[in-house]
């Protein structure tokens, strides 16, 4: 009694077709197909972008300071050794 037989499923299908009509069901099916295709394309685009984003960033050179009184500590330590 818990499972439905083929006869039950056919009756349900006939009732759904009578209520919604074949044109509306066809539109729902095509919209669902477009949504699945869009999802797959989005996932494919994310996979293509991901390796580019995981590359290490290039180190930026230190910016030049207009004020000559500022001392760069890293440069000063390198010249001591």
Automatic annotation (TrEMBL):
InterPro entries (alphabetical): TatA/B/E (IPR003369), TatA/E (IPR006312)
Function: Part of the twin-arginine translocation (Tat) system that transports large folded proteins containing a characteristic twin-arginine motif in their signal peptide across membranes. TatA could form the protein-conducting channel of the Tat system.
Biased segments, Low complexity type: 51-68
Subcellular location: Cell membrane
Spans through the membrane: 6-22
HAMAP family, per database record: TatA_E (MF_00236)
Family label: Belongs to the TatA/E family.
Protein name: Sec-independent protein translocase protein TatA
Keywords of this entry: Cell inner membrane, Cell membrane, Membrane, Protein transport, Translocation, Transmembrane, Transmembrane helix, Transport
Stored Pfam families: TatA_B_E
Protein's organism: Massilia solisilvae
Keyword Magnesium: no
Basic and acidic residues composition-biased segments: 38-50
Membrane topology: Single-pass membrane protein
Subunit structure: The Tat system comprises two distinct complexes: a TatABC complex, containing multiple copies of TatA, TatB and TatC subunits, and a separate TatA complex, containing only TatA subunits. Substrates initially bind to the TatABC complex, which probably triggers association of the separate TatA complex to form the active translocon.
